Amino acid sequence: MNDPGPLFSRLTRLLLALLVLLGLRRRSETPTPPASPPDGTSYGSDPSPSTEQAAGAGRQTGSTAGGELAVATALLAGGALGIAFCLLYAFDGSNTQMLGLTLGLALLAIAAALIVAAQQVFPRETAVEPRPVLAENRGPLEAEVAEGLVAAGQGISRRRLLLGAASLAGTGLAGAVIVPLDSLGPNVGETIDTTPWKKGTALLTEAGAPLSAEEVIEGSVVTAFPQGADMRELGSPIVVVRVQPSTLRLPAGRSGWAPEGILAYSKICTHAGCAVSLYRAPLNEETSQPPALVCPCHYSTFDVRRGAAVEFGPAGRPLPQLPLAIRGDGVLIAGGGFSGPIGPAWWNVRREGPTKS
Length: 357
What we know:
This protein is α+β, with helices and mostly antiparallel strands and 357 residues long. Helix content is 34%, strand content 11%. It has helices at residues 5-29, 49-57, 65-91, 96-121, 139-154, 159-178; strands at 203-204, 221-226, 238-242, 262-266, 278-280, 292-294, 301-303, 309-312, 321-322, 324-326, 332-334. The strands form 3 sheets. The chain has a 5-stranded antiparallel beta sheet with strand order 1-2-3-4-9, with no helix packed on it. Strands 5-6-7-8 form a 4-stranded antiparallel beta sheet, with no helix packed on it. Strands 10-11 form a two-stranded antiparallel ribbon.
């Protein structure tokens, strides 16, 4: 892939040079305001001819055909670059260099359009005149102000072109701001609700062999996967542990989910989606804490005896539990789907209940 860095640098220098030239031109065209009226000038309600001449000496028309075309061109370029950013994000979102280049040029083009519009399109007036004494009859003064306001908008001859270009620029810029919001959080879809686990699915070890109840030893942790499914799926990995059945304090309705004290929970942490891979199994609970699964990323700790309830750390809810059963040949099998959606809480803030099996 070609490096867009030199191209971006050249275009940036070109736009900066254009802005500098426009600034110098504006400075050279700025008229010198007329001198203050000499002492003794009448400040009546009706300005004298000399005052009117001084008031109009610094007036500028502001709008030029070239300036309007430049503004329209820059706005069209900014809008086109914004739309290009959206298309590039949709079809080649991994090309961050081109994304940055198109978005940067779009913002530069719109900024250039605003600067040129302020200098050459919108009417400007520099006037110095004495302030008249407000008389009771202020009708002529009010009429003059109203006329000036109306005339300020009549200097732009290509209104439709500028409005259309501004609409395109606004659409492109809005799209460039809204489209990247799609990247906020993982695109997990229905993965958190539909998992490979269903009633009767056998548990397999990492080597692909059936996991028997005898292989799960108290004080150790085993990672298992569903038979006949992709191990890389988010809903596949589980952690299996064994505790004394008499110490179980599972939530209501889960009395038969842990045969011989063997429990299974989703391996995906409910805080940030890390893999729960640590197991705390104290030798003496009188001087330590009860058995628990621990996430190594942010140390969320889940009490396995109480349905993986959170006892420490930032996790917002327990690990989903998988009901187990022991087949006639001693192999562990799933008794159904998970107790709830897998993964971090912010993946499923609006979902409740067991997963589909």
